[in-house]
Amino acid sequence: MQLQDVMKHIPRKRFGQNFLVSEGIIRRIVDAIAPQRPDHLVEIGPGLGALTEPLLAGLDHLHVIEIDRDLIAGLHERFPPEKVTIHEGDALAFDFGKLGNDLRVVGNLPYNISTPLLFHLAGFVSKVRDMHFMLQKEVVDRMVADPGGSEFGRLSVMLQYRFHMERLFIVPPGAFNPAPKVDSAIVRMMPKPASDLQARDEAMLQKVVTSAFSQRRKMLRNTLREIVSEEALLALGIKPTARAEELGVDDYVRIANKLVDAQENSAITGA
Ligand code: SAM
User: Fold this and answer.
1) CA of residue 174 to ligand 1 center, whole Å
2) Looking at the chain, which terminus has fewer C-beta neighbours within 10 angstroms, N or C?
3) Cα–ligand 1 centroid distance for 45 (angstroms)
4) What is the distance, to the nearest Å, from the Cα of residue 92 to the centroid of all Cα atoms in its chain?
5) Measured from the CB, is residue 15 less than 6 Å from ligand 1?
């Protein structure tokens, strides 16, 4: 990417445009992804191509998804269609399933949509080999947080349920143009094998986790009052006086499964 390209395009805040300009950081990201020729790689938000070009150097083909029409025009000029398939539109509405299996998803993500995008992508976990993203450091810290601290929340539980995650390195504001106000970080997400996903109904897991963290300073016996009794929590070995952040991912799965059991039993007995 040339500096004049960065200067020509006026970055759009509403699309979360902070373009990477540090060659050293770009190299570290591409090295962490380590593309191999036949990989099925998808880049979200290629922008001015800061990552696209060095990624493509190690690939036969690359898919990109970009929402900004001005940037799409530049991408068409720069990359031949047999090397880069450009999908125009919103990554939040994109059907990643149509790109096949064993996908490697990467991107310096627009920060304003990063959380909904992570939840959207979690729906395609069975199609994904791995994902590497640049996000606000604060978001990455919440994703990889262990139980017990204030960073551990709904995002931590729902993503850790499906992925092994690792914070690779921190990227300072000076690596971008325009420079964001906060540090960023690179996270690696590897889907867990299906046999590790023990929740019998993920919607139920989501419901329990959302309720528990709806008022994170309150005790579970209050936040979960509507959906699970104190007796049921005690039977699972979970203290009703605990707060949401004190439970591990497995505890949430056990509560959700217990509720599914109860639903099924009441369906059978008509109770
Ligand atoms: N990859 C480039 C880089 O590292 O310099 C650009 C990164 S910039 C942080 C985010 C990119 O995502 C921009 O190109 C922006 O237009 C694009 N984008 C924003 N919202 C999007 C959406 N909903 N779907 C697809 N792309 C989006």
Assistant:
1) 18
2) C
3) 3
4) 11
5) yes
Residue 19, ligand 1, Cβ within 6 A: yes
Local confidence pLDDT in tens for the 271 residues of the chain: 455 555 578 889 889 999 999 999 999 999 999 999 999 999 999 999 999 999 999 999 999 999 999 999 999 999 999 999 999 999 999 999 999 999 999 999 999 999 999 999 999 999 999 999 999 999 999 999 999 999 999 999 999 999 999 999 999 999 999 999 999 999 999 999 989 989 999 999 999 999 999 999 999 999 999 999 999 999 999 999 999 999 999 999 999 999 999 888 887 766 5
For the chain, give every domain's residue range: 2-194, 202-269
Q: Which of 93, 137, 144 is nearest to 119 (CA)?
A: 93
Pocket test of ligand 1: the residue of 108, 109, 134 to mutate, having most ligand atoms within 8 Å of its CB, is: 108
Fold of the domain built from segment(s) 2-194 = Rossmann fold (3.40.50)
Rg (CA), the chain: 21
Q: How many residues does the chain have?
A: 271
- CA distances from residue 108 to 46, 50, 223 in whole angstroms, order as listed: 8, 10, 36
pTM greater than the 0.90 cutoff: yes
**Which residue's C-alpha comes closest to atom 23 of ligand 1?**
90
Task: Indicate the CATH number for domain 202-269.
Answer: 1.10.8.100
Q: Which two tokens stand for residue 31?
A: 């090295």
Cα–Cα distance measured from residue 134 to residue 168, given in angstroms and rounded to the nearest whole number? 10
> Which of 232, 231, 225, 230 lies closest to 255 in space, CA to CA?
232
**Backbone dihedral angles phi then psi of residue 62, each to the nearest 5 degrees:** -145, 140
Ligand 1 atom nearest to CA at 18: 9
